[in-house]
Design brief:
single chain, mainly alpha, 3 helices
């Protein structure tokens, strides 16, 4: 009969919600479906990084490296 699911409530900025709804519509998904997929993916990333602080530092470093390589190439 399928897997049982739990409800989660998240408070976000209204502008972010609008963007998420627009993106979900483009992907032909519901906001809940897309949110669940993003949450599962993000949690796997967090488990790999072992802490939110490490995950955020890695993502910031990756963005900074990309910006630097773009400046050198352009």
């Amino acid at each position: 009969m399928g897997e049982w699911k739990e409800s989660v409530t998240v408070r976000i900025r209204p502008a972010l919600r609008v963007e998420l709804v627009e993106f979900a519509t483009k992907e032909r998904r519901s906001l809940g479906n897309m949110g669940a997929a993003l949450l599962e993916w993000a949690f796997e990333q967090l488990k790999t990084a072992r802490s939110l602080e490490r995950l955020l530092k890695f993502q910031l470093a990756a963005k900074n490296e990309k910006a630097v390589s773009t400046k050198h190439n352009g």
